[in-house]
C-alpha cells in the first residue's frame, strides 16, 4: 500500500492524565469534528465525558488517534480498512505505539533520567489493554 502524503511531525505529548478535544486536535493534527466522527467509527476510542458532555482523552487514546491518523492519512487506508487493521493486527499497533512513545521522548529533549519510566510503562499497558478489546 502506498502512502498518500508525507509523514507529518507531530508535537510531543505532554505528561498529563487528561486532554481536551482541542488539545488532542493540536497534538494529532486532526480537527475536533473529525475526532468526534472517529469516536463513532472506532470503538476503541472512548473519551471520558464530564460536565456538559465535554470530552477528556487519556494518553493512550491520543496515541491511538495518532495511529488512526497514520493509517488513514499517511498509509491511505479507508475507515473500514483502518478499523480492520487495528482489530486484527495488534502486533503492528504495539510496534507503532512503541515508536510514537520513543519519538515523543526524544522530541521532549528530556534526559532519560528525568523520564517517569514507570508511568510510561503503565501508559503502554493501558494502550495494549484498550487495543486488545
Automatic annotation (TrEMBL):
Domain of life, source organism: Bacteria
Transmembrane regions: none
Keywords: DNA-binding
Ranges where the HTH merR-type domain occurs: 18-88
Entry protein name: MerR family transcriptional regulator
Amino acid at each position: 500500500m502506498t502512502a498518500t502524503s508525507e509523514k507529518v511531525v507531530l508535537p510531543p505529548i505532554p505528561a498529563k492524565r487528561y486532554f481536551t478535544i482541542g488539545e488532542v486536535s493540536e497534538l494529532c493534527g486532526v480537527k475536533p469534528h473529525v475526532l468526534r466522527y472517529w469516536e463513532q467509527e472506532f470503538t476503541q476510542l472512548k473519551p471520558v465525558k464530564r460536565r456538559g458532555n465535554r470530552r477528556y482523552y487519556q494518553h493512550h487514546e491520543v496515541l491511538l488517534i495518532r495511529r488512526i491518523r497514520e493509517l488513514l492519512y499517511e498509509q491511505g487506508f479507508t475507515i473500514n480498512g483502518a478499523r480492520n487493521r487495528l482489530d486484527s493486527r495488534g502486533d503492528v499497533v504495539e510496534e507503532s505505539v512503541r515508536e510514537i512513545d520513543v519519538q515523543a521522548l526524544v522530541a521532549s529533549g528530556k534526559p532519560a533520567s528525568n523520564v517517569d519510566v514507570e508511568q510510561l510503562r503503565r501508559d503502554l499497558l493501558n494502550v495494549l489493554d484498550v487495543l486488545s478489546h
